[in-house]
Amino acid sequence: MYPVEEQVATAAAVSRSISVVICSYADSRFGELLDACESVRAQLSPVDEVVVVIDHNDGLLARARAVLPWARVAGNEGTRGLSDARNTGVRLSRGDVVAFLDDDAAARPGWLAGLRESFAPDEVAVAGTAVEPRWEGGRPPSWFPPEFGWVVGCSYRGLPEVKATVRNPIGASMAVRRSVFGQVGGFSGAIGRVGTTPVGCEETEFCIRVAARDGNTVVFDPTSAVDHFVPAVRQTIRYFVSRCYHEGRSKRIVSLLQGSRAGLASERRYVKVTLPLALYLAVAGVRRNPAGLLRGGVVLIGLGSTVLGYVVESLQRGRLTSANH
């Protein structure tokens, strides 16, 4: 028998309702959107729901409504982009917890149950899971360093291997206690992905605001996971460099909104610990795997591209500030 406190927490977790919000914008990803919805449908309890938000694409909205009568399907009520699409999903949903799943990701069995368990402690405000890449072609490019899984919206080497407190989870698979939105508001329209431009960090900025409130924690549970499709177009050096560059720009915006201490806390450890280890492993294993040396070079390219994006965004913001004075 479990202690009474654990039994109460488990019962609360089982009864907690979850609204799964899936945002989509591209006709080309319609098949992946349906797969995402079906992967969740199989896990829904009677108190759960799926909310699909289509980002300013009337044709896709009509198609989704026609084939997903069991889900709530609506258009983005705000400006174009992922942030307002998610905010629309929050407004339309009714669950105690709002979970976000990318339209090109599929929840593994037990995903919703794992999220439900994560929110058993009252202090948990945001929870995330592992995001495993599903590579088109079956395997990653030989040059791709696993420390840069975030480039394709997936988990990466250096994340905790057991359930732990983190600054922010990966946006492709995260959930938020509904009451938190009343505390801190929604996702910021000043940041986040719009269309195919590889920017992001809206979940980072949001989680910094959440964690700044006393009593709120953000957790990551690697035992639950989703599979995130990585198309061939995102498996090129060109995309890798572009994504890193725009990540640097996004991180600069987060730093301006929330301060560099909070905005770059995880990145400092990543640069000081994760990337040096990646370079060591690349060099140490070069005899067994010559491609490791190539991955080491790509690590340096990724770091340089990210720093360049941060610097360029800083300079641009500085010019705007000067022009307005």
TrEMBL record:
What domain of life?
Answer: Bacteria
- Key words, A-Z: Glycosyltransferase, Transferase
Task: Give GO MF terms, alphabetically.
Answer: glycosyltransferase activity
Q: Which InterPro entries does the annotation name?
A: Glyco_trans_2-like (IPR001173), Nucleotide-diphossugar_trans (IPR029044)
Q: In which pathway does it act?
A: Cell wall biogenesis; cell wall polysaccharide biosynthesis
Q: Does the keyword Glycosyltransferase apply?
A: yes
Q: Does the keyword Cell cycle apply?
A: no
Chain ranges of the Glycosyltransferase 2-like domain: 19-183
Recorded family membership: Belongs to the glycosyltransferase 2 family.
- PANTHER family tied to this protein: GALACTOFURANOSYLTRANSFERASE GLFT2, RHAMNOSYLTRANSFERASE WBBL
Return the protein name: Glycosyltransferase 2-like domain-containing protein
